[in-house]
Amino acid sequence: MITKSDELLCHQIVSTFDHVDSSDRNWYEKTWLAVHEKSGQVMVDTGFGKYTNRNVMDAFGGVAVGGTAQYTVRASRELRPDIDSLVVGPLSYEVVEPLKKIHVCLKENDYGISFDIEFEARMKLHEPAPSFTRLRGAIMHHACRFFQLGCASGKVVVESKTYEIKQDSWWAARDRSWGVRPVGTPPPGAYWARPDSGQPESGLQPFPQIGKLTSHWTWFQFKDYGMCFMFYEGTAGKPLSFQGEIVYPIGGDRTPLPIIDLQYDFEHLPGTEKIKLGKLIITTADGVKREISLKPVGVEFHLLAAGYLGGYKGWLIGKWMGPYAIDGEKLDLKDPKVQKDMSGGVDDVLYEFKCEGEVGYGIIESVVITG
Q1: How far, in Å, CA of 17 to CA of 1, rounded?
Q2: What is the Cα gyration radius of the chain?
Q3: What is the pLDDT of residues 276-323, one digit of tens each?
Q4: Whole-number Å distance between alpha carbons of 305 and 328
Q5: Is residue 264 classed exposed, middle or buried when 0-12, 13-18 and 19+ CB atoms within 10 A define those classes?
Q6: What's the CA gap between 187 and 29, in Å, rounded?
Q7: How many whole angstroms separate alpha carbon 118 and alpha carbon 102?
Q8: How far apart are the first and last CA of the chain?
């Protein structure tokens, strides 16, 4: 089937854009964008996913207000025949200027929030090495991605209260990825399964137990540079693995500078994996060592409610929800039951970072797997 994308001179296989050169049901393309006020009063999270071999496109839009409430809207639709449109119900995503400007919108709906936001890049891209892992012979994860730091403008409305988003006080980070990774209903025994995830496919060997694992996807920026890196927690303050770079403003002549060594020291909130206070010691390829302190600003977004890992209320990224479905809720983050439901998942937490007297802001997205 010919689509609008086939007009572009960017084919890489002898086929049309309505399918990919793989029959793997876990093929995906995703976007993620977080926009936050530096004071930590409000944070917006939104993302879109296209699952060509599952015939699904889904999206979420969410707003966290301080440490008190989280609002989430989730929507899913049948991908075909409208394969070119990045619209799912009230949510839309538009590339205004490639690698520079992105427009996201959540129109008025029944769940108390809406937004109209333009992301504008401040920093050059960070393009990490492609990921590749196998499990029992099958490809588990094989993906490319890039990260970008910037600012934002527009507005967000929460229960009739409007917050104006201004570039001087609202910063942002985005992630764009594509390839193969586990999506949809988990296989039996998978660490990301929840009781309401859905009935796993029968006749499969159970997923192996992997034990405790914590990873941190980290993006933050100062006035004249930013950092993008991820690492898996190890022992004695040394990561099991990591990769990342310092990135510099668009328009300048400085190229990204690789990070070659990372040490960390975290103090966690009692009984949790949440970072209360922390210190990073980062060494770059030019031999410079930087010590960075960090502390949470007071706002976080729980991505379980957006469908990540085991999802929430039966919603998972990539799961077939029918020709069209929409859902959402307001979560009271002070409620112990909600805190329990949202624990052990994926959290975007806003932090203040200090380095050599300069103050910056950004997000650590922690993935906690307890095994």
Answers
A1: 8
A2: 20
A3: 999 999 999 999 999 999 999 989 999 999 999 889 999 999 999 999
A4: 9
A5: buried
A6: 21
A7: 6
A8: 43
* CA atoms of 309 and 305, how far apart (whole Å): 10
Residue 262, pLDDT score: 96
Residue 243, Cα to own-chain centre: how many angstroms?
17
Question: How is residue 150 written in tokens?
Answer: 């910037």
Contacts of 360 (CB under 8 A, 6+ apart): 220, 221, 222, 223, 226, 352, 353, 354
Q: List, in order, residues 6 or more apart from 337 with CB less than 8 Å away.
A: none
List % helix, strand, coil for the chain (3-state, nearest 5).
5, 55, 40
- The DSSP element (H or E) to which 363 belongs, if any, is strand 358-369
Q: Cβ distance 99 to 251 under 8 Å?
A: no
Q: What is the pLDDT of residues 17-28, one digit of tens each?
A: 999 999 999 999
Phi, psi of 299 (to 5 degrees): -130, 140
**Residue written as token pair 């809207």:** 73
What domains does the chain contain, in order, with CATH numbers? 26-197+208-369 (2.40.370.10)
Q: Which residue has the tokens 């919603």?
A: 315
- What gap in Å lies between CA 214 and CA 209, rounded to an integer? 14
Q: Is 120 exposed, middle or buried (0-12, 13-18, 19+ CB in 10 A)?
A: middle
How far apart, in whole angstroms, are the C-alpha atoms of residue 238 and residue 264? 7
Tokens of 131: 């990921």
Calculate the CA dihedral of residues 180, 181, 186, 188 and round it to 10 degrees: 90
Using CA atoms, how far apart are residues 252 and 357, in angstroms rounded to an integer?
A: 23
Residues in the chain: 371
